Each structure stands twice: as structure tokens, then as C-alpha cells.
Amino acid sequence: MSYPVDRRGFLRTTGTAAAALGLGGALASCGSTKSGPVTLTWWDYFTLDNFQPGMQRLINDVEAGVPDVKIERRTFPFAELDRQLALAAISGDLPDIAIVDNVAMNTLGGSHLLADLTDKVKKWGQADQYYKGPWDGCQVGGKTLGIPNNSNCLALYCNTRLLKSAGVKPPTTWDELASAAHRLTSGDRHGLALSAIKTEEGVFQFLPFLWQAGGDLDTFTTYGATALSFLHDLIAKGSLSEQCVGWTQQDVNTRFLDQRAALQINGPWQIPTLKKAGFDWSVVALPRDKAAATCLGGENWVVMASSKHLDKAWQVLEYTQRPSVLVPYLVSFGDLPSRKDLAGQGTWASDPALRLFLSQLPVARPRQYGAHYAEASQAVAEAEQAVLTGTASPSAAARVAAVKIDKALGR
Amino acid sequence: MPRTLSPSAHRRRAGCLFCVPGLAFLGLFLAYPLLYTVWTSVHDVELGQLLGGEERFNGLDNYRAVLDDPAFWHSVRLSLLFTLASLLLQFTLGFALALLFARPFPFNALLRSLLLIAWLLPPVVSGTLFRWMLDADSGAYNALLRAAGLGALSHDWLTDPSTSLAGVILANVWVGVPFNMLLLLVGLHTIDPALHEAAALDGANAWQRLRHITLPLMRPVSVTVLLLGLVYTFKVFDIVFVMTGGGPVDATRVLSLYVYEVFFTFFRFGHGAAAGLLLLVVPLLVGVFYVRRLRREEETTAGGAV
After folding, report:
1. Looking at the predicted structure, is the pLDDT value of residue A377 above 60?
2. Residue A390 belongs to what domain range?
3. In chain A, N or C terminus with fewer CB closer than 10 Å?
């Protein structure tokens, strides 16, 4: 049996559909031109359920406290936000405000996508309230392109019982770390767990070793080799699993929770999960070599240069920095403040683990290397993976990486 | 002027009208993005130039930069290796299974449908599945070996740069075998059983019948299956991305992952567009070859029918 569709019927159907679409479009465009409060679009990547009450409260606070403003929030998965911003830059559909990973200041900062907040910040006069690392992470080419939202960094978690039974004290230097990790290794348990995955996450974990060795990306041939050979020795002794080249920081935490790693390098965002662990743990500063250093994580507020409401957007950012707004927001997220003046308030003043992380912010360095940092970062990740999987020697891998880094950073 | 059109003109006009949706679809979703990519590939486009619209025409500079990049050639080699190994294994196993399922046996249909599950699963799922199975500590592969007392044979497939590509190929073959089997099975059913009977009566054994009847008659189907497989496999992205993300180091960074990185990690859109178009070359050549073959086949069968 067939159902013939005549031409007129076909046209009628498609015509109706087209009219409906057109009407919908017209209605939508009416909505955006209506006067009254300014609607600011706001993008972030806080998609998890446990972030929503705090975020909703922050937005309610902002809408109540900043006159004539409405926030239209959109969330993306963590890895998608940068890409969405890039795609939006192509289509010209950028948000007014975004909360971006602090490492994104490299690509975004070199792109003219971000509004220059220098004058507004100067007038505001609160720049000296921030820790140096987080604040420096918002300065690109002498301009202030954002303000810190929250900060975190890496530290060393210790399984108290395992350390005690092995007679090991929490390590404070590389030598102590190597010997502690060695003595804590037995059976299918490794002394130390860290993430060396081939993404920014792995580089975030590796850079502290480079800085502790006394170097940086511009001296990678020498100090990269030092840091790489330290990690290589850990693998060679079995203190660190070669599998770490595939581990995310979440995987690392799982090892630690399963007590298949006695020490782990991780951030404060793991504290809520670890509090449910069936064993005691403590957290100490990352062991130092020539220098004490850790890597700065966290997010920054940015305003897009394309925004039609730059002043309003800045008002919103400024409002979020009031202690009465910022403290409850950070507490509900389990985040640490980037501001020194908040050190005495909130959960981080009393919780020993959070307090340790906060105490490390002064030595937390931002990954601030310029627009093509992503390529340098990939070179570092590949060097680390090559060494840890035994495909290259530390010095050879460091040499290869240094060439790529120099090219990427234009040195 | 005549108000009514001749029937043939009428039909032609209706025909044109019916083409409109298809053409609009092709134009919007194929021609436009493709032309935009070509445009991007000859301009200096990075994240910074997007807003200001300061994209500068730079001729073939992007192509030169990509062709000068050792990482590009490394990924081309990996893609070719991945494609050839996958096709060879998929096709051989698929053919063997098709021969098996071509003969009646109990639960034939049930088993055949179960096998198809591998092909029906989204690549993200099968990729995750294989990542877990090949995991060094908690993976099924190593656990089975250890349980069988063959712990010495256990291996960290995906974190060892020398075997990670093999691990990814294994997963891809598992996904591809049912598809190959299904198409080849259809082909086998088109072979007239009388040919086999006649050959058997003439004293040909099973091997001779396979070698001299089945294989030659399966040639057109086989070529189709291989060509389709080549196009699908060469542009593979999801299963590799999920299993290894291109690592360890760059051991599984096939061409599609290279393009993705240049685009979305480095935000070098000009280079990415150039590399993306270069990625199209192989499937495009194969596609042209395939369409021409199809047309020739249609002509010969149409000729035969007359």
C-alpha cells in the first residue's frame, strides 16, 4: 500500500513548518531586545551536582546585590569550555563572563578575546589582597585580564598507618621522598602515586619537580633532565608504578584510597572523598630539592572583550569578591580563597588539610608562559611519558623537549 | 503562452523540486563546512585573529608547516599501519566467520545476532571496555593469565608505547569483524549452490571449492567490504581517543587525533584545517575509486539483463 503525497500537500506541510520556525525565531529575537535589567551570559565548567547549590546561591547574591542584572548561566564539561569559547569566537557568540581554568590564561590571554581590566582593577585598589601566584596568573603582557576565582595547589598525602608501620616520617626533601617511597613499597603496593597522563593534568603534576630542581621551561635541557631522572629512579626502584602514565589525578586518588599507594601527590579537591576513607591520613607540603614549589591550580574570572556590558560585568566580578559573598561560595565548593585577607575565615582556617594547602599558595606558581604554552606542555608530557615508559633516557628526552618548548614559546 | 506544461516538463519540474531538500542539505552541511575549511587552510587563523577578523591570506604556508612537521608524518604512518592491520585482520576473521555461519547449525541465527552486538556498541563504549580489559592491574586480560598461572605472559598493553597500537588495533578489529562478516555472509548467499554441487560431483574437495568457486565469486563483494572498511578505519577517532588519547608519548596518535590536537589543544586553526584536508585525501581517492567501480558494475549487470 502506498501513501501518495501530492505536491500541494507537500508544500502546505513544509510551508507550515517554515512559518512556525520563522515565528519562533522572531519571538526569540524579541526577547533579547527587551529593555530592563541587563542579562549577562556566564559560562563555567562546574557541572557536578554538589557545586550547584553554592553556584545558585552566588548567582542569587549577585542578582540581588548588583542593580539591574540578570545572570544567564551555561555549563560545559571541563575539557569542553576552552573549545566552546574558541567555537563561540568563530561564530561571535561569546558570553559576557566566564570562569576559566587558570592555565587557560595562556591561550585566551594571547587571543584578544579577554577584556582588559587594568584600569578598573587599579581604581578598585584590592590587587595586593591576593596571593602573588594567583594574581600573577591573571596578568598577561602587563595587563590585568582576569581576577582569581579560587586557588588550589598540589601537596603530598600520607597514609598515616602505613608510614608508621614502616617507620617513615613524612618526607620533606627529594632524598627523603625517594627513600620513604622505597621503604613503603611492598607486594602490589607502591610507595608513591602521581599522575603522568599525557594531558595538562600530568604536566600540572610534573612542573613542581622541574621548579623544585631549580629550573623552568627555559632551562629544560638541564633541569628537565634532573626532574625526569628523579622520577625515572622512582620507577626503576619500583617505588612508583609505570602505570602512572595512564592515570588521571582521580585514578591516583583511587590508588591511595585502596591503600595501593602509601603516598600520593594530589590537590585539595580530593579532601571530601578522602574524609570517607577507612584510614587516617595527613597532608604535607611537596618535598623540596633546590627550591620549594608547587603548581597553582584553580579558576579565574574573565570578561570577554566582545561583551556589550563591560562595566556591568566588572560590577558583578567586584561584587563576588566581597567576603560576605565569596566566603560562603568557596566553602560550599570546598575551594580555597586566592585572597590573603580571607585566610582567617571559612573552613580553611580550621580544617588542618585545607590549612596546609592554603599555606602552600605562597610557593604556588602559575603556568604563565604565553599563547603557545599548550605546545610546550605537550612536549613536557611526551618527554615524561617517554622516560617513564623506558623509551628514552632522561637527558635525551629533555633535549628533545627543550627544542619543542623553545619553538613553542618563541625563544 | 500555454498554461499547462507538457507531462514531461511537468515531471522534470517536480523532479527538480524534489531535489531541493537534498541539495539544501548537502550545501548546508557538506559544501559550506568544506569550503570554509578550505578557506581557513589558506589563511593565518589562530584564536587571536578570530574576533578582529584579521585573518591574513597566507597561500600554502599552512600546508607547508604541516608537511614540515615530523609529528604529522608520524601520524600518517600510524594511520596507515592501523588501517592496514585492522583491515587485514577484520576481513580474514570476518570471512572465516561468514563461511562458518553460511552453513546451517543449531543456534546459528542467535549466535550471529550476538556477534553483531560488537558492531552495534558505540565506539566510546567498546573503547572503554577494552581499556578496562587491557588495564595492567585490574584488567581481565592480565587477571586471566595470572589465574591460569601464566603471569609471565601478562603485559601492560596500553601503557607500553611498543604495544599500545596493537591494543587499539585489537579493539578496532573486534568492532569491525561483525560488520565484515555480515556483508560477506550476504555475498556468500548469492552464490548459486548448484555450482558447489556440480564441483563436488566432479570430485573437488572443500578447499578446492573454496579456492576456485567461492573466492573468485566473492571478489566484487570483498572489494566493496574492503573499500568501505578502509574509509571507516582511516578516519577512526573515537576508539583511539577513548583508549589511549594518542599516548603513551605519541605511540597511537593517528592522523585524526593529530588534527584534533592542532585544532583544539593548540588552537592553530589554519594548520588544523590544512591537516584536516590532507586527512581527507586517502578516503577521497578510495571513494572515487569505489563510486567508479559501482558504476561499472551497474553497467555490466544492466548490460547483462538486456
Report:
1. yes
2. 155-285+372-409
3. N
Q: Which of A18, A45, A107 is nearest to A371 (CA)?
A: A107
* Chain B nearest-CA residue for A8: B14
C-alpha–C-alpha distance, residues B77 and A263, integer Å:
40
Q: Is residue B18 part of a domain?
A: no
Instruction: Say yes or no: A143 and A214 in one domain.
Output: no
pLDDT digits (tens, 9 = 90+) for A155-199: 999 999 999 999 999 999 999 999 999 999 998 899 999 999 999
B206-to-B146, B191, B259 alpha-carbon distances in Å = 40, 15, 48
Q: Is residue A179 part of a domain?
A: yes
What ipTM describes this predicted complex? 0.81
Q: Residue A291: which residues within 8 A CB-CB, separation 6 or more?
A: A211, A212, A214
Statement to judge: residues A162 and A269 lie in one domain: yes
Q: Which residue has the cell 587557560?
A: A104
Is residue A365 in a domain? no
For residues A239 and A193, membership in a common domain is answered with yes
> For residue A192, what are the β-bridge partners?
A240, A263
Confirm whether A256 is domain-assigned: yes
Number of domains in chain B: 1
Interface test mutation site (partner B, options A90, A114, A228, max chain B beta carbons within 10 A): A90
Closest alpha carbon to A116 in A140, A92, A135: A140
Residue A185 half-sphere exposure, CB side, CA atoms within 13 Å? 18
Tally of structural domains, chain A: 2
A76, A129, B56 from B53: Cα distances, Å: 26, 38, 9
For residues A4-13, give the mean pLDDT: 45
CB neighbour list of residue A136: distance below 8 Å, 6 or more residues apart: A366, A368
Cell numbers linked to A149: 576565582
Q: What is the extent of the structural domain holding B228?
A: 69-305
For residue A105, give the nearest of A294, A302, A317, A363 by alpha carbon.
Answer: A302
Chain B residues touching residue A201 (CB < 8 angstroms): none
B216 at interface of A, judged by CB pairs closer than 8 A: no
Categorise residue A334: left if φ over 0, alpha if ψ from -120 to 50, beta otherwise: left
B159 to chain A, any CB pair closer than 8 A? The answer is: yes
User: What mean pLDDT, rounded, does chain A reach?
Assistant: 90
Distance from CA of A199 to the nearest CA of B (A): 9
